[in-house]
């Protein structure tokens, strides 16, 4: 049934033709290897094909049928652009070991895009779309040809049996000659001195891995050493999520231990884990969290008055963090530093915790993926329930819960006073159920008795302030001097600085007040690239060109051309008296971007001059047939309070001499970040590439 799809298959429209390159049949007809060169008409944008300079893509497919072992192994790889893109696909049909009437089918593929004229992301999306489509149709195609065979009266194929051997050397035997002697022999086999017949007899044995078999299982020693006990289902979830990240995520791929934390946080539900992991990766990228330990130095106030620090490890080898919350002046720290600086400090503590987990994994020879936190509440009073301080605490908990799941192995709360239930009532709703189960709360001196601190921490490292013998170097805290307090305006500006202290710029977009960025181009055919996230509201993205420079924005923050807000700046460059078509022109079709979307794209400039990137407030169109507001309009008005939007953006200009490939941009395309494929929309007038990720 599988062979019937050659030389071409009407059920696979992109499969145009195929030619047999090599074919081999063993003397006993148990082995049949056939290699074909397949011609594919890929469903790709017309301009992309023009850039690449090809109309068709060629793949080489090798099918190895072993009638003795009852297996069919299929390997395919790309011949076109093989120096830029590496695609490998492996499929296998085998007989189920427990039921010979069942056929097992396995399929996997890998995609490695080294370079593709600067459009690697677009090619990746197209490949994923094609592959997903093929997977969905695979079963349908094989069933179509099985039904065709049944209609022809073929419902049974006799099982292969060895041919009768010649009785004597003088007997005349005429074995069938191979159609072609050409066959790919693995280098390892030739080095070991195996004959071609031995290779054929062993290469398809189920007890031996076939050449190119995908690594669909993790090494048992690796799991035991770095990941801990995993069921086959959990191992499979980890592999699938990691492969999905490798195929779709642009940027640093987290380690298996970190991916596993998100899977555990969602009970190994891949879709849910993938959603929160992608959100976290975007957040890490925006705020450069990966570099926080190397690039950010805590203010001296934190070093002196933040009563927390790392202190050895617990009995399970987990890093131990000690926090003397009762001795800490939370109100003074918030008044002296602001909410953002405290959050940044807590993030650096979590990043240090991840690093210490890796170190302890190496030291103790077993996986350690979380840490223990010891919180001493001696001294906690109503001052700690100061509303702005509690608000800052809740936000910190929210950020940590979202981006560092399953990192808290155990939380020991000691010497909880009477006021603690009030604080617990405020913060507990923001803490995940799984995390709450790890809390152990001791009142008074209960921690010194059975089931107390000694069950979790060695006696030798119990801090001195808890009655132990180990000197703890955690700062004692104390009241922050009021001379260090800062005004609300100073704290607000500091918070804005920390929020925008990334490669990204922050901007606010208001109804009637778009945000605009000016880019001067000297050399035509340069490439303007952008990457932005719509943090709040819906916006319209435009690109304009002008031969003359716009007037610089006014300096006053209350002027019509420049607005400063706590969430980011707002700059308007296009003068009110300018007319579209006379003073400036639109070089791209407007692109509507929804809240939560991430947009990447590029534009190849045709002329020198001044280009303006504009983010404009998007108003929902009124319904033409009725005066009643639509549900979407009502929801939009609720979501976008005060007609304000917010974007985080990054732009860069690439010179024509540094740009790889053709000087023609791609058609615009939309894609779902959390989906394997996306619909591609094209416009003959478009000269830009924009990938939108939801």
Report on the structure:
With 694 residues, this protein is an alpha+beta fold. It has four domains: 2-152, START domain (Alpha-D-Glucose-1,6-Bisphosphate, Chain A, domain 4), CATH 3.30.530; 220-287, N-terminal domain of phosphatidylinositol transfer protein sec14p (Helicase, Ruva Protein, domain 3, Orthogonal Bundle), CATH 1.10.8; 290-483, 3-Layer(aba) Sandwich (Phosphatidylinositol Transfer Protein Sec14p), CATH 3.40.525; 502-550 and 570-620 and 642-663, Sandwich (Jelly Rolls), CATH 2.60.120. Helices cover 29% and strands 24% of the residues. It has helices at 46-52, 120-151, 187-191, 196-203, 220-227, 232-248, 256-265, 270-287, 292-295, 300-305, 330-337, 339-364, 387-403, 420-427, 433-436, 488-499, 631-639; strands at 15-25, 31-40, 57-66, 71-78, 85-95, 103-113, 308-313, 319-323, 371-376, 408-416, 439-443, 505-510, 515-521, 527-536, 539-546, 562-565, 568-571, 585-586, 591-593, 598-604, 609-617, 644-654, 688-693. A six-stranded antiparallel beta sheet has the order 1-2-3-4-5-6, covered by helices on one side. Strands 7-8-9-10-11 form a five-stranded mixed beta sheet, with helices on one face. 27% of the residues are buried.
CATH architecture of the largest domain: 3-Layer(aba) Sandwich
* Average pLDDT over all residues: 76
Distance between the termini: 40 Å
Q: Give the tally of structural domains.
A: 4
Q: Counting H and I runs of at least 4 residues, what is the number of helices? A: 17
Q: Which class of secondary structure composition applies to the elements?
A: alpha+beta
